[in-house]
Amino acid sequence: MTTERVFNFSAGPAALPTPVLEQAQRELLNWRGSGMSVMEVSHRGADFVEYAAHSESTLRRLLDVPDDYKVLFLAGGATLQFASIPLNLTRDGDTADYVITGNWGKKAVSEAKRYCNVHIAADAADVGYTRAVPADQWKLSDAPKYVHFTPNETIHGVEYHEIPDVGDVPLVADYSSSILSRPLDVRRFGLIYAGAQKNIGPAGIALLIVREDLIGSARRQTPGIVDYRTMADADSMWNTPPTFAWYLAGLVFDWLLGQGGLAAIERVNIAKADKLYQFIDASDFYANPVEPGSRSRMNVPFTLPDEALNAPFLEESAAAGLMNLKGHRAVGGMRASIYNAVPPAAVDALVQFMADFERRRG
Ligand SMILES: *Cc1c(COP(=O)(O)O)cnc(C)c1O
After folding, report:
1. Are 190 and 172 a contacting pair, CB within 8 Å?
2. Does the beta carbon of 337 lie inside 6 Å of ligand 1?
3. Cα(337) to centroid of ligand 1, in Å?
4. N or C: which end of the chain has fewer CB within 10 A?
5. Ligand 1: distance of its center to the CA of 120 in Å?
6. Catalytic (active site) residue 138
7. CB distance 151 to ligand 1 below 6 Å
8. What is the crossing angle of helices 344-361 and 261-282, to 10°?
9. 13: cis peptide before it, omega within 30°?
10. Bridge partners, 204 (sequence order)
11. How would you label 319-357 residue by residue, b for 16+ Cβ within 10 Å and e otherwise?
């Protein structure tokens, strides 16, 4: 039991900015003088509609989203988009190309296969998903409807630091674990999507940014809440959206703007990641398996020299207020997720703890 907030390195649902939670707490019982919480008001009421529009315009400002892109707030998380994308963007007989750089890319493929022909343009399985295969090594099919990739593989800690060039083919990106961590040239993409619970807000909502010309040719059987045309025409309120998750996402957008926007948060993210990787690389005790040019700024997996040390590491780090460092079972060892809401002080404390643990156990 602790009475204070800890440093939370969870991969997701992940840490939220403390000022955001404090604002939500202040407003919980009486949102905007309504005498009700935001959870208790109609999504079609003037207050929520105005708030939703505000959250979208803040997001558009943060990412500099061009006017010919729609922004949607959708239930079902990123995983529903694994199916929604082929349902909206392909017809019978069409092929979509997929790049696999880890578990999330693999899961996207397994869903897409239910709806369209899937061509694997690259797969980093041969190097144990320790590398973001560069776009000039992708082998695209003849006429793909789109190319899907995962800019940041949350489990393996592998990130693309440049936007792949695929010519005129729409580029589709699962940005679940790195959206809003850096500025992004949205024009380079046909479609960007992200589950909220890493860098946007609480679980239960996904953000979708899609070029307008890609909307409107969903398969006839596509459920309305999955059809981008239906949802775009209804401003993401064709049915009741997850209003509380949307509200918190809007607070996070405001918080990011207050931090100076994405260029500013990127500088902080680079400093945090550099500090942790430099410490790991300088040590003979800890190791990170990812190729240096493909290392994620958001998710940093690392191993200890002996698996028997994992349990004491986790126990002692938790006792020091450093939570959720256990790595994913697919990779083993530890993983520190250092999203936007994880402050530099958390990384400082982690590095200090790691150095101390090595001194005692190394
Ligand atoms: C977490 C994650 C997902 C799954 O998101 P859900 O919201 O749980 O569906 C998909 N892709 C990536 C890259 C993720 O990190």
Report:
1. yes
2. no
3. 14
4. N
5. 20
6. no
7. no
8. 10
9. yes
10. none
11. ebebbbbbbbeebebbbbbbbbbbbeebbebbbebbbeb
198 has catalytic annotation? yes
Show the tokens assigned to 209.
């940014």
Please list the alpha-helical segments (H only) found in 200-309: 228-233, 243-258, 261-282
Model confidence over 44-66: pLDDT tens digits? 999 999 999 999 999 999 999 99
Q: Which of 68, 339, 88, 123 is nearest to 219 (CA)?
A: 88
pLDDT digits (tens, 9 = 90+) for 295-345: 999 999 999 999 999 999 999 999 999 999 999 998 999 999 999 999 999
End-to-end alpha carbon distance in the chain: 30
Using alpha carbons, list the distances in angstroms from residue 135 to 93, 122, 167, 179, 216.
25, 9, 11, 20, 29
CA torsion sign, 122 to 126 to 132 to 135? negative
CB 81 less than 6 A from any atom of ligand 1: no
CA dist., res. 177 & res. 179, Å (int): 6
Residue with tokens 């997996």: 301
- Phi, psi (rounded to 5 degrees) for 10: -60, 145
Among the listed residues 208, 211, 203, 299, the one whose alpha carbon sits nearest the alpha carbon of residue 249: 203
